[in-house]
Fold:
Amino acid sequence: MLARLVVTIATFLEWAKQSKLLTTADHAAATKEAIESLKSAAGEQKQWLEDANPADQFLATLRHALTAGLAHVRTLNGGIPRSPELLGWTQENTMGDVPTYRSHGPCLGWAAWNEDELYLDVVLGYNTVKKFAGTELALSKQTLLKRLKEETVITRTDEARQRNTIRITAEGHPRNVFCMSLSKLLQLEESPL
Structure:
């Protein structure tokens, strides 16, 4: 793309020189300035594309939804997960030694700290993250899943069915989920105990 732009500008400036709209000195200066401007713009575009990694955007949006209390995850049996404040829960006023917690927003999936896995619901989890991301995550579900797998965000797949999702039982019901690392999602050095 950059080469095409350089050729287009060079052709235009050569035409301007031959039409006597630019002197030879002005032509050389304009060509040099145009090429430098294009290189600078290309560098900014490269940085923007690197910053726009869909896997990073997906994780950041999911992390934000959980920590901002816009959504939550539960344990596989439907209970309060370990480190609930990181997963969409807030501690309520307690009476005595046992804290109580309240979940916020829809349940997007289930946490299994011992396995360092988050099971994100294929429909509700994906749609909620996509909604919160808005236009920042403008990929189809299949393309996004492919990118998440390439970036090792998705940690387990169903090779027998050739799917990027797996089947689990959560809260007594079979579920199709994306399996991802909890510690990677939450940017933890290790999973808390």
